[in-house]
Amino acid sequence: MITCFIRYEIDPFKADAFTEYARAWGQAIPRCGADLIGYYAPHEGSSTLAYGVYNIQNLAEYEAYRERLRNDPQGRANYEFARREQFIRREDRVFLRLASAPHGELIKP
After folding, report:
1. Of the candidates 72, 92, 78, 93, which has an alpha carbon nearest to the alpha carbon of residue 17?
2. What CA–CA distances, in Å, run from 86 to 11, 16, 70?
3. Alpha-carbon distance 7 to 32, whole Å?
4. What are 76-88's pLDDT values in tens digits?
5. 62-86: string of b/e by CB count within 10 Å (b at 16+)?
6. Which of 4, 7, 16, 21 has the fewest CB atoms within 10 Å around its CB?
7. What percent of the chain has a predicted confidence (pLDDT) above 70?
C-alpha cells in the first residue's frame, strides 16, 4: 500500500472554489477505486496551502485508477471546473509508504 499526498498551492481568494473541488473528489475518488483519506483546506496559518491524501495498492493500480477518474463524469467535470476557475496555482504529488506501523494504543490523559 502506498499513500499519495497532493500538495496544492491555491488562490487564497478562491478557497471556497477549492472546497467545492474537494467535495466533488470526496465522491469520485472512492468510486474510482482509491481509499480517500481526505482533502484539507486552509484553516490557520498559510492561506495558500491545501492537501489531498489517499491510499492506493501500488503504482500500477494508480495508473488504472487515474484512467477511471478521467472517464468518470464527475471526475471530468471537476477537472474542467478547476481549469475554468483557476483556483489551483500549483499541484505536486508524492507517493510514500507507511514506515511507523504498527502503532501503539492511543492513551487519552
Report:
1. 78
2. 8, 12, 19
3. 21
4. 999 999 999 999 9
5. beebeeebeebeebeebbeebeeee
6. 16
7. 100
Neighbouring C-beta atoms of residue 20, cutoff 10 Å: 15
Task: Map 17-45 to HEC letters.
Answer: HHHHHHHHHHHHHHHCCCEEEEEECCCCC
pLDDT, tens only, 47-69: 999 999 999 999 999 999 999 99
With CA atoms as reference, report the closest residue to 18 among 53, 54, 50. 50
**Under 8 Å between Cβ of 70 and 76:** yes
The confidence band for 23, taking pLDDT boundaries of 50, 70 and 90, is very high
Contact 51, 39 (CB under 8 A): yes
Report residue 17 as a C-alpha cell. Answer: 472554489
- What SS3 state is found at 97? coil
With a CB cutoff of 8 Å and minimum separation 6, the contacts of 25 are 36, 39, 52, 78
